[in-house]
Specification:
The chain contains 9 helices and 5 strands; from the N terminus they run H-E-H-E-H-H-H-E-H-E-H-H-E-H. With 209 residues, it is an alpha/beta fold. Strands 2-3-1-4-5 form a 5-stranded parallel beta sheet, sandwiched between helices. The longest helix has 25 residues, at 163-187. The protein binds adenosine-5'-diphosphate. Adenosine-5'-diphosphate (ADP) is lined by residues 40-41, 62-63, 66, 83-84, 87-90, 95, 116-117, 119, 123, 160, 169.
């Protein structure tokens, strides 16, 4: 049952996601359809952006989209704000269809990089319903210990970077997102990369996968 309200929200999300005007095949990329996962502060946003800029294919970060919607005061933003501020995941139905719709946009036809999605097994299952030639090819996990997460996050200032909220986001990652990795491990498409060290070093490890 999709209300007009719901469709309105989806179009808000679509409008807020970055678009590239010219699709380009990610010839140097590890995979054309890549999911980057890792705990908060693991650097997935930074690396996803760089991967998207070099080999091409839109980078789709739902966390940014939700924060932008919050700043814009849209309905999605209002509905998501409490969850984001508390370090909880936003309910699947608020993000899943919007992300999937974005993946069918023309500029995503040749590949995409998802950063922070799927974060629940429900989201992964829904993504898994895409035809094989449009589905996930590779899941790259950036591994960093909790201490590193706290050090890194202490150096940035975002509303949801309060230490108690970060602790909650780490717990949520363990509870909801590690099962997503188990799901993809069963499919044999997960590669793990050491996410510690300077961004340049981590990037070299990623492209060497
Ligand atoms: P981080 O990886 O540092 O936790 P993100 O920017 O990826 O930061 O996410 C920030 C917040 O946005 C999350 O704590 C959560 O509330 C929400 N969020 C992001 N991606 C999803 C998703 N796939 N499903 C549900 N909520 C999400």
């Amino acid at each position: 049952m999709r209300s007009i309200k719901y469709l309105g929200m989806v179009s808000t999300i679509l409008a807020s996601l970055p678009r590239r005007s010219k699709p380009s095949r990610p010839d140097k990329s590890l995979a054309r359809r890549l999911v980057l996962l890792g705990p908060p502060g693991s650097g997935k946003g930074t690396h996803a952006e760089r991967l998207a800029a070099e080999p091409g294919g839109p980078h789709l970060p739902p966390g940014d989209m939700l924060r932008r919607a919050g700043a814009a005061g849209s309905e999605l933003g209002r509905r998501a704000a409490g969850f984001v501020a508390a370090g909880e995941l936003v309910p699947d139905e608020l993000v899943t269809e919007a992300v999937l719709a974005r993946l069918s946009a023309p500029d995503a036809a040749d590949g995409w990089i998802l950063d922070g999605f799927p974060r629940t097994v429900g989201q992964a299952r829904r993504l898994g319903e895409l035809p094989e030639d449009r589905g996930v090819e590779l899941v790259l996990v950036l591994e960093v210990p909790d201490e590193t997460v706290f050090e890194r996050i202490a150096g940035r200032r975002r509303e949801d970077d309060d230490p108690a909220v970060v602790r909650r986001r780490i717990d949520v990652y363990r509870k909801d997102t590690l099962p997503v990795l188990a799901h993809y491990d069963r499919l044999g498409i997960v590669r793990r990369v050491d996410g510690t060290g300077a961004p340049g070093e981590v990037y070299e490890r990623i492209v060497a996968v």
